[in-house]
Design goal:
By secondary structure, the protein is mainly α. The chain is 70% helix and 5% strand. The protein has a 3-stranded antiparallel beta sheet with strand order 1-3-2. β2 and β3 form a beta hairpin. It is globular.
Length: 213
């Protein structure tokens, strides 16, 4: 059962982006309702929420399955990220409390990199970007980025080389943070924009090698 402060949709979202259900996996209503001890109606409502967030696909007469991001999805995800993140960083203050979360995420990713814990590196990386968005003090932007990040983690699950996917961006996170603290938001924003362009190219290149469309 979900904890009191979590909804079933929250629990399913975390399990999906953690890779417990691979992209394309069919989600059995019978098995999941029994596992979580909830009614099918409750489970279907959680599915509906995750369909809206792009994490689940529902096909009539075939049921629900974990979404498999396409090349077009990846392009749109990064288009949204380049619209949001550099703008927030450019206008942000190095004195904002979210800077502590940015620093913590960078340090966590560096530790995970040393341990070659690629899942932890990926999680810390997304925490760093979520902290950037938090500089805007906008709960709506925060929710939007949470959904974008979850879809991106699904795309990451399709790629069979997590080291190549995550390792290069640990020092780039540090560079963005240091630019923000020493040169200010506009300089860090430029650094981040270039970073996101490169990240998109990396993911699209991996999709191309996998024959994804």
């Amino acid at each position: 059962m979900p904890a009191h402060d979590e909804t079933l949709a929250d629990v399913l979202r975390q399990r999906i982006i953690a890779g417990d259900f691979a992209p394309g996996t069919r989600l059995s209503e019978t098995s999941l309702s029994e596992f979580f001890g909830v009614s099918r109606n409750t489970l279907r409502e959680a599915f509906r929420v995750l369909v809206e967030q792009g994490l689940i696909e529902h096909i009539p007469h075939r049921g629900a399955s974990v979404a498999s991001p396409t090349v077009a999805d990846v392009i749109d995800i990064y288009r949204a990220r380049r619209t949001i993140e550099p703008a927030v960083l450019a206008a942000g203050s190095p004195l904002h409390p979210a800077v502590d979360a940015m620093r913590d995420a960078v340090e966590a990713s560096e530790a995970a990199l040393s341990a070659k814990d690629w899942r932890a590196v990926g999680t810390s990386n997304m925490a760093f970007h979520a902290a950037i968005v938090a500089l805007a003090d906008s709960p709506r932007l925060g929710r939007l980025f949470r959904d974008i990040a979850a879809e991106l983690r699904l795309a990451f699950l399709e790629i069979d080389s997590p080291e190549a996917l995550h390792a290069p961006y640990v020092p780039r996170n540090r560079a963005v943070l240091e630019a923000f603290l020493t040169e200010g938001g506009p300089a860090a924003s430029d650094e981040l924009h270039a970073y996101l362009v490169h990240s998109e190219q990396t993911v699209l290149g991996a999709f191309t090698r996998l024959g994804r469309r």
